[in-house]
User: Fold these one by one.
Assistant:
Number 1:
Amino acid sequence: MSHLEQQFAETVRDAVSARRTLRIRGSGSKDFYGQPWAQDAAVLDAGSHHGVVDYEPTELVVTVRGGTPLAELEALLHDNGQMLAFEPPHFGPATTVGGMVAAGLSGPRRATAGAVRDYVLGARLLDGRGAALSFGGRVMKNVAGYDVSRALAGSLGTLGLILEVSLKTQPRPVAEATLRFEFPEARAIEELNRWGGKPLPLSGSAWADGELFVRLSGAQAAVLSASEKMGGEKMNDGEARVLWQSLREQTHEFFAVAAKDGLPLWRMSVPSIAPIDVLHSAMAGNTLLEWGGALRWFASASAPARVREAAHKAGGHATLFRGTDDLRQSIGAFHPLQPAIAAIHRKLKTAFDPHGVFNPGRLYPEI
Amino acid sequence: MSTLSPKIDFLRQADVVGRLSAILPDDALLYRSEDTRPYECDGLSAYRQLPMVVALPRDEAEVQAVLKVCHELRVPVVARGAGTGLSGGALPMGDGVLLSLARMKRILSLDPLSRTARVQPGVRNAAISEAAAAYGLYYAPDPSSQIACTIGGNVAENSGGVHCLKYGLTVNNVLRVRGFTAEGEAVEFGSEALDGAGLDLLAIVIGSEGMLAVTTEVTVKLTPVPEIARCVMASFDDVEKAGNAVASVIAAGIIPAGLEMMDKPATQAVEQFVHAGYDLDAAAILLCESDGTPAEVEEEVGRMRAVLEAAGATAIRVSNSEAERMKFWAGRKAAFPAVGRISPDYYCMDGTIPRKRLGEILRFIAAMEIKYGLRCPNVFHAGDGNLHPLILFDANIPDELERTEAFAAEVLEKCIAVGGTITGEHGVGIEKINQMCVQFSPEELALFRELKLAFDPDGRLNPSKNIPTLHRCAEYGRMHVKGGVLPYADLPRF
């Protein structure tokens, strides 16, 4: 353990003996996300623990400390012709890699490239006893022991402090093109699913307000032939980049209007073919659709219970992605769990963090 | 080595059979040794144990009922698919029920529009792709045993295959697993959507070797079949040059659909068997596949060829037809049976290493061949750094199996030493349980055990596999010591 890691371990042990709780925080870029923080928790500044530990582009693996700024990591990969294929959102200039993993959020490329968890190969974790534990590794394939490191993606710091993480990297595509179509929502969903079943180099999709955008990435020849097959109107490259960036960072007009109107923002993760009437009948308001139809955003003040019921009916779940602290506290940011699954969550929490030191209540009130 | 649990207690057996016969038809309950014999081992036949009882449920209700009875009677349960696993993960227990899911082999639904299939655990891996072929879709993970192995077993082992560098492992291609806890409670991990609420328990359950829950239904993602695929076969006069060529391909920004390597002893064994036209003079050959649209593949094959030539390939051939491509792959996919023809027995290893350490590992294996007096051809998922050295031995020669196991243990520990892992895709099971003591610290192993108990509080699902006890590690004598200080120094070590 490095000096700083030992300090973290001491902080954890002190918190245990003083019966205090800790709030793990990188840059605070995702403070808005999840259940509101416990008021009395002391901040553990995870951002101070930064730096690239190991990067070998030909191994397609990078290992960094949890507090490393995501922008710094992405710049390094970019210089080597590589990228994080899941296009994580930053939501702030100083967002950290540890925070990116803990939040488990992925961007436009997710439907075809996979999510954060698909690229986590290994991690070192400081548990709630102050012990540093390693899981997974720095190799592509590893089935020794339970795959704990992937499960850190989306755990919101409830299992421990991410000291280091090893991620699979990917070469950047040679060519990219964005096509624009004018389709109503139902038609857009149908086309996206139809295209999804064809060998096309899809790498992003979004529909809002009657316009469907589809991004293609890959070899020059593949992008060219797919554009010809699919039709639509080819967007100017600069404008396309701005569009995908605005979706990734939620600066797109849809999100801006929702924020201005003070409406709760719902994230509905549903099967890509989920019919629109099931969801629309439960909620009024605007929609933006991503991930080939599998991710649907609603800016809506509809009753939360109805929203959750509609998501469940459609075969998915609903997250209150942005809303006031009061609202997130009262109805829960995340979809309620099946009782047997909730029981496993509580026991897992105890296994990693027996004294309940880390981010209590951040994911669900009881963990 | 073969006896891991007590001899069968016939009174206990009568008791368990009596209770299970109330919920299962006669033909779904086996307990006479002539009937249970076929279940005494999986693909790792060096370990054998007759189960006390074999249960063959046909549906979820029967699985749940069996689990509830076993919970009540405190009987351990080992789940089994096709029994093709290579690490003894489905090795039965003499005081336990072997729960075969082989009769649950229906594809429940297949939706070409959402590109998903809902299948029972006993469905064969290849059967999913066969059913999806009509829609131009397939299930991407393709372990070499795919014609026989089941999706339930793939979930348990997080199986890969020769195309996983580009298309991922089981964990990247499964959306949802339905099943039951050891207590018989229904659980669902993941969802029909791309993610589920809460912690990603699906990621933990996949690859958990049947120790956390019994899988009864799996929703898999289907992938569009590429328009065409072509395979480049390159010969090298030196194994390390071939290893460096792999790094050069990746450095050029190419992710091949498959990237495999075989050394000379392996190609020679295989060539006699399948006549794939391999270059028998080469020290190593690389198989490098490109897939996509015809124009894309032509572009990529051109780039692959240039990189491989620059890396010192002595000969290059590109498949010109689907038949020729299948022939190139036939040798690689038949490597294990081919080796089985030249040696009475063989022992397959599964370590994964950072690719740049390949030369070092191959030299180490060559030294071990001399030390133990045993031959060891190598096949290698080069793109993933996953090695399958095959130690040739004859179990009828006294001490050859022991020498083989010592050879394998040294190689696996070397894999850990170079920053790799003891198993890339075959699992720990019973086979590599001692090496877990080397790869993980006592604190990490303790956490794994607590994790298991979070799902299975009484430790009844496939106990004594995968995660060793500290006692076992102490006996093995390879306790992972961090910073020169033995953790839990005050613990009794026997």
Number 2:
Amino acid sequence: MATVLEVRGLRKFYGHFEALKGISFEVREGEIFGLIGPNGAGKTTTLRIVATLLAMSGGQVKLLGYDLRENPEKFRENISYLPEEAGAYRNLTGLDYLRFMARFYDRSPEETERFIERAMAIAGLGDRLKDKVGTYSKGMVRKLLLARALMTKPVLAILDEPTSGLDVINSLEVRDIIKRYAREGLSVLLSSHNMLEVEYLSDRVALIDQGKILDIGTPQELKEKYEAPNLEVVFRRIVQ
Amino acid sequence: MKKFTNLLFKEIRELINKQLIFSLVFTLIIFYFIGQIARQEAKRAEGIRRIGVLDLDRSPLSRGLLDNLRLVRFKIDEFETGDKEEALRLARERNLAFLLVIPSGLSEGIERLETRELETYSFLRSFSMAEARYGEIFRVILDTANNYLSNEILKKKWPEISPENLKKPLKSRDFVIVRENRAEASASAIAGFMYAQSIFVPIILAMILIYSSQMVISAIAMEKQNKTLETLLTVPISRSSIVAAKMLAAGIVGLISTLIYLAGFRWYMRSFTGDIAEAASSITTVIKELGLSLTTAGSIILLFSLFLAILCALALATILGVLAEDYRSAQSLIMPLILLVMIPYILSIFTDLRTLSLPAKILIYAIPFSHPFMTTQNILFHNYMAIGAGIVYMLVVFIILVIIAARIFSTDRVLTMKLRWRRRQVVL
């Protein structure tokens, strides 16, 4: 499989605090790559740098061979980012919001409609898409945003804590959506502090703590390597 | 361009929400009704005024005085009683506002060139504008009576000479000179007319600047509060387009809101000032002779100056908006900008900004929003150097502010920069 995203020696300082201490990993075409670790490990910082929101302090990030420092616009054309605490414009209807976002990526009105049809299928919100976003529940907003992130079939979907704050039912639905639509060929870089969720979703995972990657592999490889029943135990054993 | 218009329409749509429409319509209705009521009150006060009169003199002179009062739109209810208290009771019963008591012996006293006192009683029943205007009646009555009586005396002494010529042997012809233009008019009348005609200009300027700035600060703060900014910053559109779309949308909505508020305010003000067009008919020719009417070129210069001031305000508001954490903090952050607009606005109403002391002048000229407040006068008095310098200064300030705003938006400071009131420091 070809490499879509390549991260080499990535460093990030917030003042004197070093949040990322030279992490390296790659995301391959069609794979779901999970970053797992506790709060404050550096997951969101990594995702925000790849999403062009934060400037890196050192290292190199490449998407389809384009360097992030030199071509941030190429990144924005090919990625789709779902922040952990994202919202949508409350005065727009769900449909208007999808149309507004689709127009940044489309090449024709027909393509806009195709994006929206796909988003409608992903979100599964039916007629509620005609209502204003301000009337949606948290779960509905999350599904709408996930649909927005996936509707344009980006080269790389960046999902930060995709089930954050959702109840069990909504979390299961969101996981199913990610799993189902990732199989259509798009690459996914996701983060979560819920290690069981990442284990269920990801093809490969990187365990990250205090700005450093501790290990990378498939969930199965890691469990075998550390003789653990799940990734939570793997993480605990590595840290200890 | 398609992406920019997509963003622009979204921004306008976000800004024109139900709350804004309700606020605009409500304010318009309130202004209209207050204006209508005030106008009715003013008309009532200016209508035919009824007064009660107790004539204790009953001489041809006092009868002549009453005829003169009728000529100046007084309707007279005359009491036949000879008792003042009885007349007061009757006036109260008939709900009259005034009672005029002409003393006995008025005629004889005047013949002997002695001063006599008229007594006036005012029944104050409220503190409305109409009641306040009735106070002027005292002056009208006294002036009418004095004029009539002095004319009668002079006519008797020197029947062959006009009393007016005796009372005012000197008359004046007033001329006003503006630059090389000269016209026959009084300087106070011209200044009063120009003030009345241009009273809306600083109001428009201040409102547009404040509204537009508030819109753009709120737009950025709402993006942060609703957690939509991060997503917007990752879509394939340049950061400068995001800034420009927000500024343009705020400018458009701010302008529309201002025009609507102004229409309501104009309805309200017309109840006090009357229709300027009607009042202007006699003085318009003089204004044109003096070259004090704003030409098309002058209007374009004024609009350009205003446009630059709006751009400066929007750029500054964009920077302040980044510092806001949410909509509430945005409302506090707008205060410095409002102050910068209000200082030249208030000063322009009470004084000529160009005649201030040097330190005050430096301070005022350093505020970019001061320049449009001075532009109208500078255009009319052909101070083109001052206009040019103001425009160049605003342009420079705008470019600096836009560069700062664009730099903030093109780096991660747009997400990390915020003003924390508790620590009182900027966190970068």
Number 3:
Amino acid sequence: MFKKFEDKEMVSNVNNAKSSVQRGIRHAVLEQFPHIDDYIEQILPKKDNLKIVKCHEHIEILANSNGEAVFFRQRDGPYYPALKLIHKYPFILPHMQVDKGAIRFVLSGANIMCPGLTSPGAKMTKVDKDQIVAIMAEGKQHALAIGVTKMSTDEIISSNKGIGVDNIHYLNDGLWNMKPVK
Amino acid sequence: MAAAETTESTAREFLTDIGPKPGVKYPVDIRYCGECSMPTEYCEYYPGYERCKKWLEDNLPKEFEKLMSGKGGGDIEEEKDGEDKKKRQTRGGKGAVKAKKKLEPEGIKLATSTRGKKKKITIVTGLASYEIDLKAASKFFSNKFSCGSSISGDDEIVIQGDVKDDLFDILPEKWSIIDEESIEDLGELKK
């Protein structure tokens, strides 16, 4: 989604969310990621001014008062956490670990193919189709991408072919390199 | 066949831990590389890895040692890597991660021009190459000189009034990365 994202050109406007809108967003995020219940005050403080950054292609980025991206979504889709947030709170999403050989392709924006998830170095969490997952790597601590599963874990194992997880947001893509918004 | 598959999937290990781990304090403290901006463990996948290494050595010597020792053997393994790379065909084009280009500061140019018959304006160019936010800079100028200041181009600020002489002192004072030597006076520009 952010492969060709350029923050200077793609951002169309930034505005502060009304408190009622903010409440709605908090609610939606909590519903989607129930694990962050204890930490929501740190991630999206109630007193804080949440910024909504509207971008081209109907992408909407939520930024905290420091201007750092926290969540994003496209159209009315689900909210995705940004990678910097995942690094701080890795438990938000189920993890999918890819093997070593896949890392360099993922880092250039490739989707995750099934063999990269089934080989000995890889580990999966049992999830269904269309689940947002964090892509981890063999021997590494931190996530390197955020993706959406295209098949359930069982299907990935049985077919072992084609795209298993769609790459949405990865290290050094447009969103990662976005400067803090004002 | 089906039976074999099921045994395989039961033998497979799954990640099961969901939710915050007990005993870990969140948010997790994480250090990013100043060169490639990724977590330090991913530096080796960056095309400008050599520069990352240097940055790590200068800024996070402890991390650097850990990464180097974690590789086991260090140099020997690296040589192997190099040979491997030669054998494998490298893919160019869109897929490859490109190293970020650092903008070279080009120096700041100051000029004055006239507006109407007797009014002067000062034109400052080159601030963006120092990665200075133009909007903040123009606000700073208008505060400092109590006058209008506007961004008129990609890398150009126009200040109303002739403040060129003051700028020579104020620019290095406000932004320490600017050297007084690198400020150039272009004199008076004709429209």
Number 4:
Amino acid sequence: MSLDKVKNIVLVLSGKGGVGKSSITTQLALSLSLAGHSVGVLDIDLTGPSIPRLFGIESSKVTQAPGGWVPVPVHPANSESGIGSLRCMSLGFLLRERGDAVVWRGPKKTAMVRQFLSDVLWGECDYLLIDTPPGTSDEHISLAETLLKNALPGQVKGAVVVTTPQAVATADVKKELNFCVKTGIKVIGVIENMSGFVCPNCSECTNVFSSGGGKVMAQDFNVRFLGSVPIDPQFVMLVETGRRPVYPTGTSVRGQDMASLTLEEAAADVKEAGQLVEKYKSCSLCPIFRDITSDIIAVVEGKLVEARGA
Amino acid sequence: MAPSLEEAPESIQDVIENPLKATPKLVAPEPEHCPGPESEQAGKADSCAGCPNQAICASAPKGPDPDIPAITARLSGIQHKILILSGKGGVGKSTFTSLLAHAFATNPDSTVGIMDTDICGPSIPKMMGVENETIHVSGGGWSPVWVLENLGVMSVQFMLPNRDDAVIWRGPKKNGLIKQFLKDVEWGELDFLLVDTPPGTSDEHLSVNSFLKESGVDGAVVVTTPQEVALLDVRKEIDFCRKAGIRVLGLVENMSGFVCPKCTHESQIFQATTGGAKALAKEMDIPFLGAVPLDPRIGMSCDYGESFFDAWPDSPACTALKNVVRKVGEEIGLKPESVLPESPKD
């Protein structure tokens, strides 16, 4: 199988839609790459693929090679700066028009998920992140079945479960945690996304979607809580327009000073050249994800075994 | 096996034009690339060769599902049927559905029903504060759960033994339940039936469309958030509606702008870098129903299962929502005053 040389497979799951599975996958991939690992991202959201847009490679197409599909490269490995390579595969790369609807019933989706798992030429790869659609249906069942049958023992390291803080979201995400229990997928931990928004004008933090729901849920299910990620419109701007994030003077995240250019300077370089991974280093979420990623790496490498229970 | 790129995205016309047939009783699980036992291609496709079900599928009665007339009869007492759609998850489909229902139900002469077709992630019961209810079955069918005297709800959540149970179902099983919701639920005389859907363009959407085609749907309200990552999926949903012949009543932009409660500075949390829903509505030539600001109190009301309209009647989000509700009413040919009487404050 094409996954033979992949060292670790990590799933990104959530029962709820729009909580940020794809943007968390993107940031985990960038952070793992910054930590020097080679990363592959497989997007199995067939009816709403977001990965191509988030990496800014919407116009790329998949090429065919003898034996399978070649994933789309985001950036190559750079041993000088210690950055690992990053590649993606998504149904978005196979569509003729970006607005085309993919209207598929279950069996067709199942076949496509299996094909994505067996026919993509990942080659040597430290981490394969699999981004999933919301729910616990065809794509998830097929993914779990195929991995159970075909993956090497110990290759599937588990799932990162994403939620937002409000009760309406955690209600659905709890179902996903039960799905993991039933299918025997280990939960690496829970990430609470969209946890608070800092007003750029007065620096007041508002809990737009309330707060703390993810942590409580993790405790209830006795799984690790990996951290809370606030809303950062600068990250949205980064993926939407490719603009390097800028923060006012005095902005500091986990002891790292994030303030950089002045706002006037920033307005000038809307379409700045450069790799996404380089620009992401200026994002306030980067230090947060560095910590989350190092926790995930520790779990995957077996250095952190016991879940921090309640 | 070398995969072929040409085969991947197929024409959706075929899927939409052929309505669902009754599912035959299979003797083996569906194989890979199965066209679906309910489809027109059942028993005839390339992948059917060698399948133990082939003879069963091929000899199953042709023509549309015999249950469709039963559905049409069951729903004949419903004046208006509105779908709430979005290609993207978490944009506020269920929130908007519950708000729309509460708004319609403020008129004591109207009776409103909500059907939650999100089988794997049902949110409506929580938002309506009826999470722990169960369905009662009587001779006439399944009774919906009544939130108010004139507001009833049906969802898979009411059928689960435990609140957090996962519903791990493949497509055909989900279709079966949706059919039962339409065929067996005793709605009685309703003025409005709102159908909340899961994200995407797959089994649930195709089923709802083919089961309801006969009895007629007023149209679909499409919900989105302003950023392009969401609009990208919503564009696909509108494309689906076009091809399936569902009228789009309009596009609602949710989570549009956030006003800091401390300094009243407005921030675009989900920035509309490509012009947001308004530009998309213009591009796709569909009505723009309005923009609803991001108000943390809407989420709080949903978490506690109370009506946002009753809890915060004076908030700007409430005013914006009321305008959207009136526009939806207008699109389905009702007088705005009859849908939502103007209060002196508006």
